[in-house]
Write a structure and sequence with these properties.
This protein is mostly helical. It has helices at residues 10-32, 59-77, 85-102, 133-150, 155-172, 190-206, 209-226, 246-249, 253-272, 284-298, 325-333, 339-356, 359-375, 408-421, 425-428, and strands spanning 57-58, 113-114, 186-188, 227-228, 231-232, 235-237, 250-251, 310-311, 337-338, 387-388.
Length: 429
């Protein structure tokens, strides 16, 4: 388990991050996750990683695995991490083939769940094969990463088509959003947010003008619907009379922090192609203000770490209830400590500090790193125990999908290594 290293020492932070990624996080996943017979990765593990609960494969997680393996192949090829790039690229390719051959449905969406050997299956008795646009978009994300690293086949074209189909359904209001359906009369920040993140990756892989347009439309929606000053709402009501609801008042600090690096990356991707990108949300200092507010709003002053949810004015979420089942989730789990907000926040805070030089971001990074590396890692050769209660004790609960997620931790660590490795020589040591 690594010690928390200050962002003030980029070289030491890069070494510690690479060691933790390769020796612990990836060591566990590569020993336990890959299905080298059928392709893909096994993710239905208990929170502590000790028990495999199912050999089913959620498309959501499989698309993320393609992205991770493809980007690790690139990092290994460039000498950023000590890993076999050919083996990583082969696993990315085989998982992508599994998705291409089994998950893609005739209507342009994807099945939510696959059997171990590939055939799609309903996630619940009587349900449809397709239940979530997020599964479509994570599949597109994986295909885009494979296209960028391999240059093979039509992976980029498949990513473009999945993105366009998903974006069209979101715009039409027909997109399905399991595992947490968005209540009628509200708009969810998670939809334009993921379009920014995935759209930028597809743009980088293919140069697609349609992907660029998708990103620009999504950022415009975030600025006009969800952003107020340095605050980003998780859900925006169509009716002013619903502003007092818990749905409208609650915030998800982890989402906001993750979105900050999506937005910075998207703006940079557009500008590299000479596309006008004048939104406030492409400005690093604006994003820094948003990130600091989200970190402060989510920070648990008593126990440390980031709350899963918070009220827009801080503390436990509150407001008028509408009877939506998502409200029960917010109220029941708001003070839990989850792996993904902490992993994403560490990268965002470091990235924005390096972009702006702001010391408040460095202080937040170091504060969060001290908590995160004390609480979450499972020990040498292990991943993280991903779900914790307020005091940091492990919880045996399901979050979103009944899986142990292979994505957020490894992605955040890998992106941190990439960014620190790109510093000018005088700043690396």
């Amino acid at each position: 388990m690594p010690d928390a290293v200050s962002i003030a020492d980029p070289a030491a932070l890069r070494r510690a991050t690479a060691q933790h990624l390769v020796d612990d996080v990836l060591a566990w996943w590569l020993a336990n996750g890959p299905d080298d017979r059928h392709g893909g990765v096994f993710t239905c593990w208990s929170n502590d990683g000790g028990r495999m609960l199912s050999r089913d494969k959620y498309t959501w997680s499989q698309g993320r695995w393609v992205w991770l393996m493809a980007r690790l192949a690139r990092a290994g090829r460039l000498g950023l991490v000590d890993i076999d790039p050919a083996a990583c690229l082969d696993r990315a390719r085989r998982c992508a083939i599994l998705l291409r051959d089994h998950a893609l449905l005739p209507d342009g969406s994807t099945a939510y769940l696959l059997a171990q050997d590939g055939p799609p299956k309903p996630p619940a008795p009587g349900s449809d094969l397709h239940t979530s646009v997020f599964a479509d978009l994570f599949t597109a994300l994986g295909f885009a990463a494979l296209a960028a690293e391999s240059g093979e086949g039509d992976w980029g074209g498949l990513a473009e088509r999945l993105l366009a189909n998903a974006s069209g359904r979101i715009a039409a209001g027909t997109a399905r959003t399991e595992p947490y359906p968005i209540r009628a009369g509200f708009r969810g920040f998670s939809l334009p947010m993921i379009l920014v993140g995935v759209g930028a990756e597809v743009l980088d892989a293919t140069g697609s003008a349609a992907a660029a347009d998708t990103v620009l439309r999504a950022v415009r929606e975030i600025e006009t619907v969800f952003l107020a000053g340095d605050d980003i709402a998780e859900m925006a009501p169509a009716a002013a009379g619903d502003a007092d609801t818990l749905l409208a008042r609650h915030r998800t600090p982890g989402h906001v922090l993750e979105a900050c690096w999506f937005l910075l990356q998207a703006g940079q991707s557009l500008r590299r192609r000479g596309i006008a990108a004048d939104f406030r949300l492409f400005d690093a200092d604006t994003l820094a203000d948003i990130a600091v507010r989200a970190a402060a709003l989510g920070w648990d002053e008593d126990q440390g770490g980031l709350f899963r949810y918070a009220d827009r004015d801080g503390g436990a979420p509150r407001g008028r209830r509408t009877g939506d089942r998502y409200e029960d989730l917010v109220v029941d789990t708001w003070d839990t400590k989850l792996w993904w907000p902490h992993a994403e926040a560490l990268y965002t805070l470091a990235l924005l500090h390096l972009e702006t030089g702001r010391q408040d971001l460095a202080a937040w990074h170091d504060r969060l790193a001290a908590y995160t590396y004390r609480v979450f890692p499972a020990g040498p050769g292990g991943e993280w125990v991903q779900i914790r209660d307020r005091a940091g004790a492990p919880l045996d609960k399901t979050v979103a999908l009944p899986v142990k997620d292979p994505f957020h931790i490894a992605r955040a660590l890998l992106l941190m290594i990439e960014r620190l490795s790109a510093l000018p020589p005088g700043q690396r040591s």
